[in-house]
């Protein structure tokens, strides 16, 4: 095309002088006499500007012709294979074999077949594949002012590739021999159009080589092809695997908190295996930090680990366990990992793994059938979708295997990375549905729990109301019984004593003062019973002040002075109506005995704190009194009732005579009383 355009332009330029309109009669008129006045200007224009305009038109036409020719798609070349290659750094100048010896035409894409068992891989044998590209005419190419680039979708072999233009080295692969041209497209700056391009491929052993078709053009023409190809072959697998690895790490963190959820662990293991597998699509431009043999082992076995994690996830998702199948799966993965180790006798196969790849495909086919069968029986659409997509990995793996062994078009793209990406996306969707299902179950459980709690709360409120009613009735009953018993034992006993006093007096001349004394005691008992019903709020001093108010007039009438020497004491939390009545009865009995028997003229009342008890002390200056020295017949029921009332309070009473009279001590505990003071039957006889 360029040659034709150039020829047409050449022929046109040569024919123009003979046909140019300026050679007609107008020129003759300009040279003759009588020429117009503007004729000298026209002659000057023709001499100065016409050549420049013609040159501009010629350059524009030539550039348009070349623009139509670019980019060049080169689909044929010359091929030659020579022994004695090297993987060392080559000199910058091309040392091309002699022309015409062994060169043959070959189409592009070009394939040098590989042997199934390349026995010479480890023997150090290296051969060189020379590819000479047939370029368009250099004259047309040299007319462009923009730099040109070479773009090839893929080259692949176990070795190195070097590109020469016009005998000068432009580019040489830097990575290791295994992964050099695995997945990176060629993008080489050629500068201005070269006359010839030679590609040298040094191949280790009999593993063969492949080169796609080549395109040459400007950056504007080809860069979009290179960018799209790079994204599809390298960037997309890496970005997708990185994102899925982040989700896998999140699943690992969830599993660390919930160890029973093994599906989250399997999700992390699958994401990690997929990430390791996609690393092979990224290497090639620079040497690896680890030996290539070990990286090959890692990249290959990561596929087996991914298959193991995915199918174990399906079985755990369905709640199934196929012990024999899982044992065979574990054994196959271990066998693949150990048999492909670079340290084994299969070291020379580490670059291709042909037998191991076939075994891996067969293993994946077997577990795919088992997973589909289990999902079909379980009726799980999610598991069926996941299993069906996993089953697709078998034909896709065969496609990649054929592409790696140059059995299909070398310009195709490896598809297993895309399968793994969609596979792990389905993986995440299943985990997401599991998570949403768990949230729904928790929400439903919370709703049921709230309903049951509301029902239980209503039942408890009703039961509590009934218990309050029962307790109120029991409290009223106990209080009624206490009041009746206190009135019977106190007021009733005093009235009976007065009645007997009158009835025994045959003469009917009972002393009025004796009867009045009995009636006063009846009134005091009635007042004490009423006082015990007043709320004392655990305040013993308030209770003692009430007693002082009730008995003060009797003591004054008897000519007895009362000294009140009380100190602050802690509150008694157990002090209630019944316990207050017991305390009042005990102290009433003490004051009554002083009035009747001691012939005292002064009484002192004291309160103080003694460790874990409160002391109430009463001193009279009458006849000393000691219970131990009092005969039972003269003790009456008063002392016995005081002892029983004190026992009901977990308290103690004591008498201690001295030179000036008698000290009475009532020791009350600060801690709650253990006995039930409000129980029926605790009323005591005065």
Automatic annotation (TrEMBL):
Top-level taxonomic group: Bacteria
- Ranges for the region named Disordered are 1-24
Which Pfam families does the record cross-reference, listed alphabetically? 7TMR-DISM_7TM, HATPase_c
Question: Among its keywords, does the record have NAD?
Answer: no
Query: Histidine kinase/HSP90-like ATPase domain spans which residues?
Result: 578-672
For this protein, the parts annotated as crossing the membrane are: 49-70, 236-256, 263-282, 294-315, 327-345, 351-372, 413-432
Q: Name one GO molecular function term.
A: kinase activity
Query: Entry's Gene3D superfamilies?
Result: Histidine kinase-like ATPase, C-terminal domain
Q: Which residues form a coiled coil?
A: 439-473
The catalytic activity, as recorded, is:
ATP + protein L-histidine = ADP + protein N-phospho-L-histidine
Cite the EC number. 2.7.13.3
UniProt keyword terms in alphabetical order:
Coiled coil, Kinase, Membrane, Transferase, Transmembrane, Transmembrane helix, Two-component regulatory system
The biased composition feature labelled Low complexity covers: 1-21
What is the enzyme's main class? transferase
Q: Which PANTHER family match?
A: NITRATE/NITRITE SENSOR PROTEIN NARX-RELATED, NITRATE_NITRITE SENSOR PROTEIN NARQ
Q: What is this protein called?
A: histidine kinase
Source organism phylogeny: Bacteria, Pseudomonadati, Pseudomonadota, Betaproteobacteria, Burkholderiales
């Amino acid at each position: 095309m360029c040659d034709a355009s150039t020829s047409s332009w050449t022929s046109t330029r040569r024919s123009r002088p003979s046909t140019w309109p300026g050679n007609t009669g107008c020129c003759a008129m300009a040279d003759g006499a009588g020429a117009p006045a503007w004729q000298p200007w026209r002659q000057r224009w023709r001499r100065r500007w016409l050549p420049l305009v013609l040159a501009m038109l010629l350059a524009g036409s030539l550039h348009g012709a070349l623009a139509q020719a670019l980019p060049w798609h080169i689909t044929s070349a010359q091929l030659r294979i020579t022994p004695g290659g090297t993987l060392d750094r080559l000199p910058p100048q091309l040392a091309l074999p002699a022309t015409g010896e062994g060169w043959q035409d070959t189409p592009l894409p070009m394939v040098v077949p590989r042997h199934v068992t390349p026995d010479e891989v480890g023997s150090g044998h290296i051969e060189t594949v020379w590819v000479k590209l047939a370029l368009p005419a250099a004259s047309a190419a040299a007319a462009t002012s923009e730099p040109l680039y070479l773009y090839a979708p893929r080259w692949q072999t176990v070795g190195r590739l070097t590109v020469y233009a016009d005998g000068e080295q432009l580019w040489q692969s830097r990575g290791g021999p295994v992964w050099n041209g695995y997945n990176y497209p060629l993008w080489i700056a050629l500068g201005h159009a070269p006359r010839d391009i030679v590609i040298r491929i040094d191949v280790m052993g009999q593993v063969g080589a492949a080169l796609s078709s080549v395109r040459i053009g400007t950056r504007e023409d080809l860069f979009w092809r290179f960018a799209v190809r790079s994204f599809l072959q390298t960037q997309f697998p890496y970005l997708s695997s990185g994102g899925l690895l982040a989700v896998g790490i999140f699943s690992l963190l969830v599993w660390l908190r919930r160890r029973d959820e093994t599906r989250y662990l399997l999700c992390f293991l699958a994401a990690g295996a997929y990430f390791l597998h996609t690393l092979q699509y990224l290497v090639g431009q620079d040497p690896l930090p680890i030996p290539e043999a070990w990286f090959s082992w890692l990249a290959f076995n990561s596929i087996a680990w991914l298959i193991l994690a995915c199918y174990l996830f399906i079985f755990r998702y369905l709640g199934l366990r196929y012990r024999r199948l899982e044992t065979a799966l574990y054994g196959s993965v271990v066998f693949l990992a150990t048999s492909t180790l670079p340290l084994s006798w299969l070291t020379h196969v580490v670059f291709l793994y042909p037998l191991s790849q076939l075994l891996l495909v067969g293993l994946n086919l077997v577990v795919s059938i088992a997973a589909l069968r289990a999902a079909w029986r379980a009726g799980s659409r999610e598991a069926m979708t996941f299993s069906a997509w996993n089953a697709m990995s078998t034909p896709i793996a065969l496609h990649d295997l054929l592409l790696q062994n140059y059995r299909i078009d070398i310009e195709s793209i490896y598809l297993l990375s895309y399968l793994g990406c969609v596979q792990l996306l389905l993986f995440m969707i299943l985990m997401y549905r599991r998570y949403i299902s768990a949230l729904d179950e928790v929400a439903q459980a919370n709703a049921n729990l709230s309903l049951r709690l509301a029902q239980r709360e209503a039942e408890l409120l009703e039961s509590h109301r009934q218990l309050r009613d029962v307790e109120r009735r029991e409290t009223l009953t106990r209080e009624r019984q206490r009041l009746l018993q206190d009135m019977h034992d106190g007021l009733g006993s005093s009235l009976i004593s007065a009645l007997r006093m009158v009835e025994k007096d045959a003469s009917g001349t009972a002393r009025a003062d004796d009867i009045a004394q009995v009636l006063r005691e009846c009134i005091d008992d009635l007042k004490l019973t009423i006082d015990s019903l007043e709320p004392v709020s655990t305040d013993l001093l308030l209770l003692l002040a009430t007693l002082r108010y009730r008995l003060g007039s009797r003591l004054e009438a008897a000519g007895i002075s009362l000294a009140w020497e009380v100190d602050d004491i802690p509150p008694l939390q157990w002090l209630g109506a019944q316990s207050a009545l017991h305390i009042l009865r005990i102290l009433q009995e003490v004051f009554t005995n002083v009035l009747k028997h001691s012939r005292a003229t002064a009484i002192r009342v004291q309160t103080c704190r003694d460790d874990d008890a409160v002391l109430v002390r009463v001193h009279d200056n009458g006849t000393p009194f000691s219970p131990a020295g009092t005969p039972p017949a003269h003790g009456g029921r008063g002392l016995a009732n005081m002892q029983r009332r004190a026992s009901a309070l977990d308290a103690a009473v004591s008498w201690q005579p001295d030179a000036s009279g008698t000290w009475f001590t009532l020791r009350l505990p600060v801690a709650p009383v253990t006995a039930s003071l409000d129980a029926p039957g605790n009323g005591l006889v005065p």
